[in-house]
Amino acid sequence: MESRDPSTNVILLEDTAAVLGVIIAATCMGLTSVTGNPLYDSLGSLGVGTLLGVVSAFLIYTNTEALLGRSIQPEQVQRLTELLESDPSVRAIHDVKATDMGLGKVRFKAEVDLYVLVVTRSYLEKQDFDHMLQEIQEVKTPEQLEAFMLKHGENIIDTLGAEVDRLEKELKKRNPEVRHVDLEIL
Predict the structure, then answer these.
(1) pLDDT digits (tens), the chain, 186 positions
(2) Do 62 and 10 fall into the same domain?
(3) Does residue 133 lie within any of the structural domains?
(4) What range defines the domain where residue 129 resides?
(5) Cation efflux protein transmembrane domain: which residues (predicted)?
(6) Of 68, 83, 104, which one is at a domain's C-terminal end?
């Protein structure tokens, strides 16, 4: 019963318990019918109940890791964390959790503190500065200034989201075993 896929153990044990339960029930009902003594029927019920209880306890015991999640090796967590920390837009990584989901799949979760200046610079590199300067020069009222700032502020936030998406894709690309990545911005 060393399968990493919990469903294999569940199916095998449930089917075995079902067959044994039918055998116990049929035997005890037959004995009750032949002897006329209802004690055998009662013992059969207790036997089937005990069998189901033992199987369920065994399944809980053997599948606890799959139910609760098992951490991956510290070296692998370190490698994933170092990959993120080596990116120029990442200032720090906090609250890292990496879980083995079985079948060679890993879930990685971390809180990421980004260098906002790097992300803002990434946004600005895609802008036409002459056009932006012209927009600024046309600002005459507080309402126009607010509209200008909201437009570019929203775009910077979108760039921040795109940066997180890029980091998640990069982590998956370099580590094929990582199937789920959840990076949260601090």
Answers:
(1) 555 566 787 898 999 999 999 999 999 999 999 999 999 999 999 999 999 999 999 988 887 776 777 788 899 999 999 999 999 999 999 999 999 887 788 999 999 999 999 999 999 999 999 999 999 999 999 999 999 999 999 999 999 999 999 999 999 999 999 999 999 998
(2) yes
(3) yes
(4) 70-185
(5) 4-68
(6) 68
> Which of 155, 154, 102, 147 shows the shortest CA–CA distance to 128?
155
Helix (H, G, I), strand (E, B) or coil at 4: coil
Secondary structure of residue 176 in the 3-state scheme: coil
What's the pTM? 0.67
- DSSP 8-state symbol, 177: T
Q: Are residues 103 and 162 in the same domain?
A: yes
Based on the structure, what is the number of domains in the chain? 2
Give the Cα separation of 166 and 145 in Å (integer).
Answer: 31
Smallest CA-to-CA distance from 161 within 141, 184, 179 is with: 184
